[in-house]
Write a structure and sequence with these properties.
The protein has helices at about 1-15, 85-95, 100-110, and strands at about 45, 50-60, 60-70, 70-75, 120, 125. The protein is of the alpha+beta class. α2 packs across α3 (about 100-110).
């Protein structure tokens, strides 16, 4: 948890720039974004596979969601029970070229709420600065 607060503090300091623009020339291996993601599911992921952050724009602010691999909602979901939820059932439908049934069976529970398991953020922070992306 101490690392999470440290990372949050670093992000907070980074958002309070001196007002000077820094120009960095991108290399051929850089990821270059022409605009920020507008929703969390399109956010830029940053991290090391254990702890990470999603960064996106909401309104005029940057939103950071800090996540850790150990934080999951593991409540049982009634929609994910039964004989159809086995790897053998999935493989059978793939062999029969009938993957649509698999996709429908696994997508349906997520259309109803709640539908865990899902990861939830340990910390969410909205930058107080207006966001200008250019």
């Amino acid at each position: 948890m101490e690392k999470a607060w440290y990372l949050c503090g670093c992000l907070a300091l980074a958002s309070c720039g001196s007002g000077m623009d820094t120009v960095v020339e991108p290399s051929s291996s850089d990821l270059v974004f022409t605009e920020l993601a507008k929703t969390w599911d399109e956010a830029v992921p940053l991290g090391n596979a254990t702890m990470g952050a999603l960064v996106w724009q909401k309104g005029d602010a940057l939103r950071f969601s800090l996540d850790h691999t150990d934080l999951w909602d593991l409540r049982e979901t009634p929609g994910f029970k039964g004989d159809t939820f086995s790897f053998e059932w999935v493989k059978e439908h793939i062999r029969n070229n009938d993957y649509g049934k698999v996709q429908a069976a696994f997508d349906a529970p997520y259309d109803a709420l709640p539908a865990p398991p899902w990861s939830f953020p340990s910390i969410r922070w909205d930058s107080p600065r207006p966001c200008a992306f250019s």
